[in-house]
Specification:
Blueprint: H1 14-24, E1 35-37, E2 40-54, H2 66-80, E3 117-132, E4 135-140, H3 144-173
Antiparallel strand pairs: 1-2, 2-3, 3-4
């Protein structure tokens, strides 16, 4: 299996993507390293979610698979002068130069390439543990966005309840 898309492209190394993701999926991305100052140790805590994936492809030779079979059937029908459409049980998913995938374009006979890879990360600061002469204590991080969103939700509930109460009181007066 080749790992080059072309002679100009460097090889794809899935291990490199995985190592980069591993280095990124750390608490250091939020707080940095734990540190000690004046006899007090501060240890950062965060929730880290992430995932990585990569893919590759290759080719050469004849086309294979369902898309290639459909393409061959359409090309054969066109060569015989028949209409390769819904009436004869075949679906026309692209032009006659389409080798199966709907937009790949090109001639039968193969060749190919591939690639792909990446990762996603979500890191949320939770707080810090503070270790000093008095012991260990937890200092939670304040998520201001969550506080604001909670306040907005509460305000919406209060406004809706007030409007509903006002509307019901108006109906009772009639």
């Amino acid at each position: 299996m080749s790992t080059h898309a072309s002679s100009d492209t460097p090889p794809v190394d899935p291990a490199h993507i995985t190592h980069a993701a591993r280095d990124t999926l750390t608490v250091r991305r939020v707080f940095g390293e734990s540190y000690e100052r004046d006899g007090t140790l501060v240890i950062p805590v965060a929730t880290v979610w992430g995932g990585t994936g990569s893919g590759w492809g290759s080719g050469t030779g004849e086309l294979s698979g369902k898309g290639a079979a459909d393409w061959r059937r359409r090309v054969g029908a066109a060569a015989r002068g028949a209409d390769a459409g819904p009436d004869d049980g075949t679906a026309d998913s692209g032009s006659s130069s389409d080798p199966g995938s709907g937009n790949a374009g090109g001639e039968a006979g193969g060749e190919g390439s591939g690639g792909g890879g990446g990762f996603g990360v979500r890191v949320v600061a939770k707080g810090v543990y503070v270790v000093d002469d008095a012991g260990v204590r937890w200092q939670p991080a304040l998520d201001l966005n969550r506080v604001i969103l909670g306040g907005q939700a509460l305000g919406a509930v209060v406004a809706f309840s007030a409007a509903l109460a006002w509307g019901l009181s108006r109906l009772r007066r009639r």
